[in-house]
């Protein structure tokens, strides 16, 4: 069975995760997706990754030994910006996967939550760690402990989701967003992502130092020259990622 | 203090006003402006008469539209730039200011302009405010703390969206997401900033400094350490203003 489809579209890498019938095929999907992510680490033309899936996606079985391994850890390891384009009820594992992406776009009738916790299932792919960091402690506690689903409008207000669109336009809206990001310098994108997530666990003072080092490292690139020239010449920059 | 070309510095009733003053170039942040701000903030930091600082931009179109890109590409090498930053780090000076900083914002608040605003403790804006960090579209990176301060103020989720897409944020959205504390008409902007500043100067200056310090430093600590810091500062404040110096 095919657990995912993968395609390259210009600078964009699109992965469509199929809803697997059981945790064994989900484990197969995790391995396949992880392999793609490993390749993307060296794919210089991959400037943005777009991940489509239904929020009710099945989690691979957890064997309880070693490091957690799933689509979530693979997505979180990507240096490029990752967009999650989700539909349906985005709960449990599906939400944990979305939280590991950088930008979330959803259908306007989507719902979000972790009802599994109240049913006695502990989260194990970062939900309890990423949710409070993304939307704040009070709202995270509400979602984790009150257990109800929140609708897309509230998810936008709470900063959980960045944009909502009708289900008919999800694919085009996600591609438009990906294209917008693909226009940027891939080095700047990767460094900005590294600075934000790396700085999250540092003191502000340490974070400023790290940002400065990354900022200065970009002095060595031709993209910097191109970006500033293009701005002065009032034209669109052509970034090479060098 | 006088003789500044790109910044106006004024002081009245314990309030310092720092006005970015290059209205002909939308108050673009230049090397000269960096050096003058460094001198002014260093003086304010050591000036106990100043209890609160208000930052604003001259002219009608912008608080500050970002770094002056005319100066880029002629700038020193990375090694030299790093050395200059080590002895004249305006951004860590912003971070270490003991007094509350208020940003009175209008028009474009982009790039370094937004990063200055993010180092302030309160942000008041007029309805025409436009925030943005366009750096990734220019092949550069925010270099004045934006990748660190924006996630702390707007949240990790919103910060990634702004940084990755370079998209702009208007006043209403900024208010809804906590980036702006309030929106007032352009005509009311400076009177309002002044009255907020006045409310701060009416308070015990030591308590105000400690409260700011407790929040800023406490956010870098574990909750236990933060509670300890707050308790220590509260005891210091109770034993009288002199003890706090």
Could you explain the architecture of this structure?
The complex is a heterodimer of chains A (242) and B (245). Chain A is built from ten helices and nine strands. Chain A is of the alpha/beta class. Chain A has two domains: 179 residues, 2-enoyl-CoA Hydratase, Chain A, domain 1; 47 residues. In chain A, strand 1 and strand 2 form a beta hairpin. By secondary structure, chain B is α/β, with parallel strands linked by helices. Chain B has a six-stranded mixed β-sheet with strand order 1-2-3-5-7-10, sandwiched between helices. A four-stranded mixed β-sheet of chain B has the order 4-6-8-9. In chain B, helix 5 packs across helix 6. The longest helix of chain B is centred in the C-terminal third of the chain and has 16 residues. The model of chain B has no long low-confidence stretch (mean pLDDT 94). The chains are: A alpha/beta (242), B alpha/beta (245). At the A-B interface, helix 4, helix 7, helix 8, helix 9 and helix 10 of A face helix 2, helix 3, helix 5 and helix 6 of B.
Shape of chain B: globular
Spatial arrangement of strands, main beta sheet of chain B: 1-2-3-5-7-10
| CATH class term of the largest domain in chain B | Alpha Beta
On the 0 to 100 scale, the average pLDDT of chain B is: 94
Order of SSEs of chain A:
EEHEHEEHEEHHEHEHHHH
Side by side, the strands of the main sheet of chain A go 1-2-3-4-6-9
Write down the overall geometry of chain A.
globular
The CATH architecture of the largest domain in chain A: Alpha-Beta Complex
| Number of strand segments of chain A | 9
- Termini distance of chain A? 39 Å
Q: Using only CA atoms, what is the Rg of chain A? A: 19 Å
Examine the secondary-structure arrangement and name the CATH architecture of the largest domain in chain B: Alpha-Beta Complex
CATH topology tier name of the largest domain in chain A: 2-enoyl-CoA Hydratase, Chain A, domain 1
Oligomer: heterodimer
Q: Mind telling me the CATH class of the largest domain in chain A? A: Alpha Beta
- Domains of chain A (count): 2
Largest interface: A-B, 54 and 45 residues
Largest sheet of chain B: 6 strands, mixed
N-C termini distance of chain B: 25 Å
Number of domains of chain B: 2
């Amino acid at each position: 069975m095919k657990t995912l489809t993968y395609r390259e579209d210009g600078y964009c890498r699109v992965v469509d995760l199929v809803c697997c019938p059981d945790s064994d095929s989900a484990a197969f999907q995790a391995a396949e997706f992880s392999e793609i992510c490993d390749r993307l680490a060296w794919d210089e033309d991959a400037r943005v990754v777009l991940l489509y899936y239904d929020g009710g996606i099945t989690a691979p079985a957890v064997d309880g030994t070693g490091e957690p391994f799933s689509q979530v850890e693979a997505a979180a390891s990507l240096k490029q910006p990752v967009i999650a384009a989700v539909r349906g009820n985005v709960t449990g594992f599906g939400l944990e996967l979305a939280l590991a992406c950088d930008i979330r776009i959803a259908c306007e009738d989507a719902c979000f939550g972790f009802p599994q916790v109240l049913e006695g299932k502990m989260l194990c792919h970062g939900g309890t760690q990423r949710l409070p960091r993304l939307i704040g402690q009070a709202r995270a506690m509400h979602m984790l402990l009150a257990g109800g689903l929140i609708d897309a409008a509230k998810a936008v207000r709470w900063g959980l989701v960045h944009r909502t669109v009708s289900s008919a336009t999800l694919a085009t809206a996600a591609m438009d967003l990906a294209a917008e990001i693909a226009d940027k310098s891939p080095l700047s994108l990767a460094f900005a992502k590294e600075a934000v997530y790396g700085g999250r666990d540092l003191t502000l003072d340490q974070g400023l130092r790290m940002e400065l080092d990354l900022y200065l490292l970009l002095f060595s690139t031709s993209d910097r020259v191109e970006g500033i020239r293009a701005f002065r010449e009032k034209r669109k920059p052509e970034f090479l990622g060098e | 203090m006088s003789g500044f070309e790109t910044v106006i510095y004024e002081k009245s009733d314990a309030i310092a006003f720092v006005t970015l003053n290059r209205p002909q170039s939308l108050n673009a942040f230049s090397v000269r402006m960096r050096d003058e701000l460094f001198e002014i903030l260093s003086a304010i930091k050591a000036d106990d008469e100043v209890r609160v600082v208000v930052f604003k931009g001259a002219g009608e179109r912008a608080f500050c539209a970002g770094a002056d890109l005319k100066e880029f590409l002629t700038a020193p090498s990375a090694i030299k730039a790093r050395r200059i930053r080590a002895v004249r780090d305006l951004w860590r000076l912003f971070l270490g200011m003991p007094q509350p900083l208020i940003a009175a914002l209008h028009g474009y608040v982009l790039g370094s302009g937004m990063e200055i605003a993010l180092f302030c403790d309160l942000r008041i804006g007029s309805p025409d405010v436009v925030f943005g960090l366009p750096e990734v579209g220019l092949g550069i990176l925010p270099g004045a703390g934006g990748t660190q301060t924006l996630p702390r103020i707007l949240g990790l989720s919103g910060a990634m969206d702004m940084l990755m897409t370079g998209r702009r944020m208007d006043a209403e959205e900024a208010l809804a997401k906590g980036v702006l504390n309030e929106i007032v008409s352009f005509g009311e902007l400076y009177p309002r900033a002044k009255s907020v500043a006045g409310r701060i100067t009416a308070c015990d200056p030591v308590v105000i400094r400690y409260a700011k310090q407790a929040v800023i430093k406490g956010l870098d600590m574990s909750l236990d350490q933060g509670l300890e810091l707050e308790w220590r500062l509260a005891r210091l404040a109770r034993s009288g203003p002199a003890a706090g110096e």
